Amino acid sequence: MPDPQSDNNNAATTRLNKRMAELGLCSRREADDWIAKGWVKVDGQVATMGLQVGPRSRIEVDPKARGQQREQVTVLLHKPMGYVSGQAEDGYEPAVVLVQARNRWQGDRAAHKFNPGQLRGLAPAGRLDIDSTGLLVLTQDGRVARQLIGEDSNIEKEYLVRVAFGAVATDVQRVFPPVQLVRLRHGLSLDGVKLKPAKVDWQNPEQLRFVLTEGRKRQIRRMCEAVGLKVLGLKRVRIGRVALGQLPVGQWRYLDATEGF
Asked: What is the pTM of this model?
């Protein structure tokens, strides 16, 4: 019988929960839960917590885990200003408090029926500043969270950013130096770390369109400050292939089974 602690070719081993996340089966936390419940087998044997596996180890998951996973929901919220993305702080409420039956968008076509149990473990997959509005994803599904905010995530996030340059708040494009626009696209660092290339273009004379593949804290505001711009308004309109669309401010809908980031 193969030893689940090592690969047939003596390759480096990986902790089971990490390997399951890498394979896209679930999140690490979810994997630990499934392992604790005896729902995971490695090479035919019920797995134990902390087990090391090789790249050729055969991982099997009990259908009960799949059933639990299918019940998990992902919510798309049009976050208003004044709400924080995550835990409550400084007297401000977390955006998740808006996920209530009365705030569900009437245009939501998903088959899900809302129940309070869906709020359990519903967490933001990425941040959106308290002063920013737009698309915020909250999910119970660790696979979605890893796809959007995992270390290897390369999902695009698109923003519309209204700006001023010094005292100029109208026709900003006319007075803003083109060389600084080039710096916004590629040439800035935050906290000593070089930023990934970004797509930055004028949407109209007062508004820039940013497309980023990373999400550093207050990144767009700090990028703008670095080139002399002041952000007057910031709205996230797309994450991956999912757009904010017609979703009204303060309302939410489910991510439909036909959609994906």
From this structure: 0.81
